[in-house]
């Protein structure tokens, strides 16, 4: 089996090379999650770059990755659909903006409907 050719440093999987002996990479594990009432989440509708399939994208969450994943799991369960978390955004399959906004409002989040 042939080895994959490395074309850039990103192909190494996010390693950070530094000559500074005191360098410590930034992690968001210690990041505090703001309370729901302090956050403004945006509910977007999108079908671009997804083969025409519609998704609802939740943007604007401030907090740790584990809290973001927990919120995504709750939304997916309540809507009965699949989804994922990528680059700090929650992606829910299908156009469930109104239902998601209602769920987030009952949890205490401030929400904004964006687009269409």
TrEMBL record:
GO biological process, alphabetically ordered: formation of translation preinitiation complex; regulation of translation; translation reinitiation
Keyword terms, alphabetized: Initiation factor, Protein biosynthesis, Translation regulation
Region ranges (Disordered): 17-37
SUPFAM superfamilies xrefs: eIF1-like (SSF55159)
MF terms (GO), sorted A to Z: mRNA binding; translation initiation factor activity
Record Gene3D superfamilies: SUI1-like domain
Signal peptide stretch: none
Family annotation (CDD domains): YciH_like
SUI1 domain sequence ranges: 48-108
Family designation: Belongs to the SUI1 family.
Protein name (database record): Translation initiation factor
Organism: Leptobacterium flavescens
Phylogenetic placement of the source organism: Bacteria, Pseudomonadati, Bacteroidota, Flavobacteriia, Flavobacteriales
């Amino acid at each position: 089996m042939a080895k994959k050719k490395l074309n850039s440093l990103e192909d190494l999987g996010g390693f950070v090379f530094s000559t500074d002996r005191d360098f410590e990479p930034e992690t968001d594990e210690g990041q505090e999650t703001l309370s729901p009432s302090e956050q403004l989440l945006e509910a977007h509708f999108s079908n671009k770059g997804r083969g025409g399939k519609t998704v609802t994208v939740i943007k604007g969450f401030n907090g740790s990755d584990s809290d973001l994943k927990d919120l995504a799991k709750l939304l997916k369960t309540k809507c009965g659909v699949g989804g994922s978390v990528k680059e700090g955004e929650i992606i829910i399959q299908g156009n469930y903006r109104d239902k998601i906004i209602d769920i987030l409002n009952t949890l205490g989040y401030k929400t904004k409907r964006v687009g269409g």
